[in-house]
Amino acid sequence: MKNLLFFLFSILIFQTAQSQKNSLKKILVLQQPGIKDTIFHLSTLDSIRADLPATLIKGSQSGPTFTITAGIHGMEYPAIASLLQLRREINPQKLKGNLIIIPIMNLQSFYQRTPFVNPSDNLNLNRVFPGNKTGSITEVIADFITTQVFDATDVFLDLHGGDVNEDLIPFICYYDNKEFKEQTRLVSRLSENSGFSTIVSYPYVIAEGRPAMYAFKQAVRLGIPALSIEIGKLGNCEKSDVSFTKNAVYLMLKELQMYESKKVIPGAPAKNKYNRQAYVPGPGQGLFYSSFKAGSRVIKEEEIGYITDVFGRNVKIITAPQSGTILYKAGRLPVNEGETLFCIGYKAVN
Question: What residues does the Succinylglutamate desuccinylase/Aspartoacylase catalytic domain cover (predicted)?
Answer without folding.
Answer: 63-254
